Amino acid sequence: MAFAIKMGFLLVTSSLMAVAAVSSSSFAVETSSSSSSSSCVGDPGMKRDGLRVAFEAWNFCNEVGTEAPSMGSPRAADCFRLSSSKTNKLNGGGYNIHHKVTDADNRLGVGKSFPGLNPKALDDPDLYAAEKELYLGSLCQVVENATNPWQFWMIMLKNGNYDTTSGLCPENGKKVAPFPPGRFPCFGDGCMNQPILAHQPTSITWSGTGSAKSAVSDSVPVMRGGFNGTYDDSNATSVSYFEVTWEKSVGIGSWEFNHKLKTSKRYPWLMLYLRADATKGFSGGYHYDTRGMLNTLPESPNFKVRLSLDVKKGGGPKSQFYLIDMGSCWKNNGDPCDGDVLTDITRYSEMIINPEIPAWCSPSALENCPPYHITPNDTKIYRNNTASFPYGAYHYYCAPGNARHLEKPYSTCDPYSNPQAQELVQLLPHPIWGEYGYPTKKGEGWVGDAKTWELDVGGLSSRLYFYQDPGSKDAKRIWTSLDVGTEIFVSNKDEEAEWSLSDFDVIIT
Ligand SMILES: *[C@@H]1O[C@H](CO)[C@@H](O)[C@H](O)[C@H]1NC(C)=O
Ligand SMILES: *[C@@H]1O[C@H](CO)[C@@H](O)[C@H](O)[C@H]1NC(C)=O
Ligand SMILES: *[C@@H]1O[C@H](CO)[C@@H](O)[C@H](O)[C@H]1NC(C)=O
Ligand SMILES: *[C@@H]1O[C@H](CO)[C@@H](O)[C@H](O)[C@H]1NC(C)=O
Ligand SMILES: *[C@@H]1O[C@H](CO)[C@@H](O)[C@H](O)[C@H]1NC(C)=O
């Protein structure tokens, strides 16, 4: 049922008087949230009625590989303008949703041209997807301020299967020969496929489900839409599933993004995130120009992230739920990335809130710890200082595979799952993070503990250890991706996670 639902303008009228209270003018055009000049996102707090959201699916090395039959390139978007018609003025007006992206746009795939497409990308699924993202961005772009246009929130879905006999993924950015299976999940040929994707274009109705926090009353029109799908074919007995739906009452509150992710026997390692990516340049994990929501790039230490998170199902003991995941890119000599996959390094830091995820970093496993910890008062504590080092605050640290001056002992990050080398600093709730508004104890923010967070992501990330060559100038810690979601690793059964996210904002402090 991919993209099966008819795209179009849905006119909803009603005789309810209540809507007059919602829209003060008969033209409720794109209620732009009181734009706070200090916000880095185009839609501060997800309050804008005229939604901009996109979808992308990645294989193990953040590429496409091969498109799924009749699905097109795995990039899609749902962007619209909301208006209310004058003709029904007495009754408060009927609302119109004017979609900016058509079903045909979303189905674009290799071999089909579109405005601006580089002919070299026409038949290359990887290049094509990158250019399709730019094209969808051009359709969705909002230019409120001539200096910093923005495009969309990005839903990112990734399949952790890796067919090592395919030779598809580079090793720390270097092309390598195929190698025997065993180290990564893969059921055989086709395990790195792209998903079947269905789209319910945003529409508007007068009946609230009552599930949207913002739906104060059934007499307020509610907008709803979603993307969903699976990696499995219909024959499978264990079927993977992903779903992101969005819902908002007109003129009130925040969009609520409801996520579901389920793994299956053949797809035991899946990731689903909602990202605020840079509106241009290389976002975390990409090596090509992207589009997104961060119209100003936040730089450590001066920014905070505000969001509301309600985790309903955790996804099992291997679900590395990221309250916040931040991604950027800089070279080991401190220079910003330039697209050269041999020297660019993706840098990630993630706070994992699943209380079942243990600290791999410990006094007896120093290779899983960063070389040192920096306290809020800027004191360095080396990891061999067993009396003071906060081992429980680190799930896992791994160094870039191409770092040349690592302090022993060390472990290096998986060299295949990014287009270039990567570095990971994975955190766990711990009292030492309290200063930054992060969870301080296991279970905080987890199932049954829905919360609105104000995280000093800038302050914390300014004090994390990231590898650089000795003597090099400190890299500017400018973040191109901030996201929330989960990565469910291989476990011995099908796992399911469910959560909702709203009020997302990134604020310069
Ligand atoms: C628009 O851009 C100007 C100049 O860059 C900036 O000073 C102003 O804060 C921006 N306004 C908004 C609403 O982003
Ligand atoms: C997507 O969700 C709709 C219900 O909204 C369902 O009918 C459909 O089967 C789902 N599609 C896939 C591919 O899972
Ligand atoms: C589903 O199973 C049937 C019968 O076993 C088989 O012929 C068909 O190719 C399968 N479909 C897919 C998509 O694998
Ligand atoms: C920094 O804070 C720690 C406690 O977190 C304290 O033990 C230490 O004395 C402080 N150092 C300075 C220089 O203030
Ligand atoms: C601890 O590690 C630091 C930094 O690597 C080193 O200078 C110091 O000698 C080590 N101390 C001990 C007791 O091993």
TrEMBL record:
Secretion signal, residue range per the UniProt entry: 1-24
InterPro entries: DUF7705
UniProt xrefs under Pfam families: DUF7705
Keywords: Signal
Keyword Signal set for record: yes
Annotated transmembrane regions: none
Record-annotated DUF7705 domain positions: 39-508
Entry protein name: DUF7705 domain-containing protein
Species name: Centaurea solstitialis
